[in-house]
Amino acid sequence: MVRIPTNLILRARKKSSLLPLLLKPCKTIDSAEQELRWIQNELPQNQWLKACYLRSNNVPLQYILGSQPFGDLNIKCKKDVLIPRWETEEYTLKLVDQLRSIKESLKIIDICTGTGCIPLLLGSKLKNSSVKGIDVSEKAILLSNENKVLNSIPNVEFRSGDVFDANIVQEKYDIVVSNPPYISADDFKSSSTEISVRLYEPKLALVGGNEFYTALVNNVLLSTDAEGFLFEIGYTHQYKHTRNLLNLNQWNTCLYFDSAGNARAIIGWKKGSKMQILENIR
Amino acid sequence: MFALMKTFKPSLRAHFSIPLKLFHTSGLEFIKANKLPPRPKVNEDEITEVFLKGGRGPGGQKINKCNSKVQLKHLPTGIVVTCQATRSREQNRKKAREILGMKIEHFYDPENSRKSVLVERKHNIKENKYRKNKKKYEKLEEEKILKDEAKKKEEEDILATLIDPAQQMIKPSGSN
User: Which residue range or ranges hold the Prokaryotic-type class I peptide chain release factors domain (chain B) (predicted)?
Assistant: First the structure.
C-alpha cells in the first residue's frame, strides 16, 4: 500500500471535501477529480458521500455508478459479474470492422459472456447477424438480458451453459468469441492484480487457466464447425497452448496485441475460408 | 376523471407547444440571426490517434481502469488535442475530433472560424450582461439618491416645525 503524502490530502481538501476520500484508490489529484466529476454527473447529490466512501474502500467505480460504456452502448454493471474492460472493447470494435466486409448473415457465439457486452456490441453493429451469449452464472444471464432490453438489440440471445459440458452447443456457428477467466491463481493473490478487482469482482470470472482454452477448442470450436475464433488471453503461454490444440494443416493463428502493447488475444481462422479476413485485425 | 386530466395536462401542453413554435416566425428569425458556422470536420488521413491509459501494467482482467483518454495529433499543423471528458472512449473520440476541428479551422482562418464566432458571442453575452447590470445599479443608485434627498427634505421640514416651537420655548427661558 502506497502512503498518500499529507500535503496531497490537504491540497485535495481545499478543492472539495469529498476529494481526499478518492485519493486512496486514485493516487493523484487529477484522476481523483475526474472520478469525482463522474460521480457528481451521474448520481444525485444525496448519494455523493456514500459513493465516495464506497470508492475509498476500493469498490470499482462501475459498480457504484452502475454502468460502463462499451463502444457506443451503455452496459449495466452489477456485483458478481465482471466489468467489461477497454481491451475487450477495442478488439470487439476491430472484429466488427472485419466482419462487416462479409455481406452474408453470420452466426456468432460468445462463451463466458458476463454482462453480455461482446454479443451486444456485435449484434448492434452487425444487424443481419444473429449472436448468442452463454455464461455459467445465472446472475450474468439475468444481467445480460437486462442489458439487451436496455440497449434494445433484438438479434442477440442469452442462455446459461457450462463450457466444460461436452454438449454445451448443438447448433452450427461461423465464429466463436470468448473472454474466459485467465488469471492464474498465483497472480490473483499477488499485487499484479488490482486490489479492487481482487476484492469486489467475481473470482469465477477471473481465475482460470489452460483448461478453459482446451474446453473452448474441444467443446465449442470443433463441435460448432466454426471457421474463425477470437479468445482473449492474459499470457503468451495460453496462446501456445491453444495453438497446439489445433490441427495446423487446417488452421492459421495469430497473436493479437492491444494498444498498451500486451498480448491480449489469440485469433484463428480456417485456411481458405471466409474467416481469412480475421488476419487483418491488428 | 378530473384528477386524470390534471395529470395529463402538462404533457398535453408540451405536445402542443411544438407545432406552435414552428409557426412562430419571430422565433425562427431569432435562430437564423444567431446561426453559427458549421462544425468543422477533421480529415481522418491527416491525424494520428493514441489512447492513453495512465500507467503500464498487465492490463486485461487484472486491472479495471475507468478513464479513457484520447489524444489526437494533426500532422500538417502539429496541433495536439487530448480529451477525457467522459468515461466512454467513443464519446471522447468524437469530442476530441470536434475540438481539433475547431482548432485547425481557427489556425487557417482565425477571422471567420467557428471558434472566434463562439468567443465573440460569449464576449457579447458577457458585455450585455455587464451593461444591463451596470444600468440596473445606476438606476438603483439614482433612485436611492432621490429617495435620500426626499427623506432629508422631509426630515428638515419636520425639524423645522419642531425647532420653531422649541426655540420659542428656549427663548423665554434663555431671557430669564
Answer: 41-143
Which of the four CATH numbers 3.40.50.720, 3.40.50.150, 3.40.190.10, 3.30.420.200 does domain A70-280 have? 3.40.50.150
Closest residue to B59, CB basis, from A82, A89, A260: A260
| pLDDT (tens digit per residue) in B3-14 | 444 444 444 444
Contacts with B60 from chain A: Cβ below 8 Å: 85, 87, 182, 232, 234, 262, 264
Domain extents for chain A?
6-57, 70-280
Of A72, A85, A258, Cβ closest to residue B61: A85
**A111 pLDDT exceeds 60?**
yes
Most B CBs within 10 Å, among A86, A112, A184, A235, to test the B interface: A86
Instruction: Write down the residue that cell numbers 482454452 correspond to.
Output: A213
Of A35, A86, A182, the CB nearest to B68: A86
Per-residue model confidence as pLDDT tens digits over B115-173: 888 888 899 999 999 999 999 999 999 999 999 999 999 999 888 888 777 677 666 55
DSSP string across A62-109:
HHHH-EEEETTEEEE--TTSPPPPHHHHHHHHHHHHHHTT--S--EEE
CB atoms within 10 A of CB A203: 13
CA A84 to CA B152: how far, in whole Å? 76
Residue-wise pLDDT for A177-233, tens only, equals 999 999 999 999 998 898 999 999 999 999 998 999 999 999 999 999 999 999 999
User: Where does residue A107 rank: exposed (0-12), middle (13-18), buried (19+ CB within 10 A)?
Assistant: middle
On whether the CB atoms of residues B55 and A260 are closer than 8 A, the answer is no
CA distance A193 to A188: 6
Distance CA A190, CA B152 (A): 83
CA–CA separation, A99 and A44 (whole Å): 41
Instruction: Name the residue of chain A whose CA is nearest to B51's CA.
Output: A259
Which cell goes with A136? 455459467
Chain B interface disruption, residue of A33, A73, A85, most B CBs within 10 A: A85
